[in-house]
Amino acid sequence: MQLGIIGLPQSGKTTLFNALTRGDIPTGISGGKVEVHTAVIDVPDKRIDRLTEIFQPKKVVHAKVTYADIAGLEGKSSEKGISGPLLNTLSQMDGFIHVVRAFTNPSVPHSAGGVDPHRDLSTMETDLILNDLILVERKLQRLEEERQRGGIGRDKAVVQRETELFEKLRALLSDEIPLRNESFNEEEEKMLSSYGLLSRKPQLIVINQSEEQNPIDVEMPFANTQVICIPAKLEMDIAQLPANEAKIFLQEYGIEEPSLDRFVRLSYDLLGLISFFTAGEKEVHAWTVSQGATAQGAAGTIHSDMEKGFIRAEVVSYEDLVSLGGFAEARQHGKLRLEGKKYIVQNGDVLTIRFNI
Ligand SMILES: Nc1nc2c(ncn2[C@@H]2O[C@H](COP(=O)(O)OP(=O)(O)O)[C@@H](O)[C@H]2O)c(=O)[nH]1
Ligand SMILES: [Mg+2]
Hints:
Helix content is 39%, strand content 21%. It is an alpha/beta fold. Magnesium ion is lined by residues 13-14, 29, 71.
């Protein structure tokens, strides 16, 4: 799973990226050069800590999310659309972290004049929407040509439905509605899957504020959109401290949980992902699946042999396992269930897959 960090120049993308990765990539670089940095992050999860206490495994593996700091969007690519390589990178993302500047810092002038998070938010949103609109117009043109030629072996009804879908997209985008606000049926999803439409990707908006500012109220009336306020610079400074010093720092400021931990979890939720666990003396491991995944599908994320040779899954919820203290105890209390391949995996299920090859 990959999340692209986007936003206007000097909004704090690299600062946030450094905070997430404990990195030290130079910040404050102006100019709209296209540049991408990526890093893989462990998803913080207190459940893993508890399971580790119980099983004392040799190895612990967290769920992962990849973040990409993507510089190059300037909020004015609307007429021609976003340039090739940049568009290509953006299209490959599963979702966006959209950093919006709210911090005041006299040494960082704002290219559009004063600091105005609402203005910047809509500048970037418009950019994504217009870029999609250009793509949709082109597609409709090709469909029209196909119709005039009398089709090229494609079912006429399919071409018709595709045209209707893209006309619907054009109407939405013309009304400045991002496509992530809409839901699509299975056939439409399939028709759209090869188009990396940017406004269709789920978005987590990060209001990058100064630490002394009160949280800023930003309303986003669209589905698949969440907002979080983060003082990115402060978070970067904390992340760059050695772990023990960071702890003291957080205690002194009365911060229970760094906002970054919440942030990483929010971005995981935004993508509709859940974790299930495998646990034993060898390893405690968090695995990532989409909400609605089946037991057999989940087995496949561990190993393709487990999916092919799937017999049953032994399932216990994280809460039951932890409160009873182990698999044997869970079995005694009837909390260890046997489930078939169609079972829908729940967030926090601890699975043992039975399979043969
Ligand atoms: N005071 C303050 N300065 C910040 C904050 N976030 C970023 N900056 C500064 O703003 C400048 C641009 O940040 P950077 O992360 O490079 O922005 P990017 O162009 O979006 O990658 C740098 O000089 C940062 O130190 C913040 O939360 N507070
Ligand atoms: Mg940068």
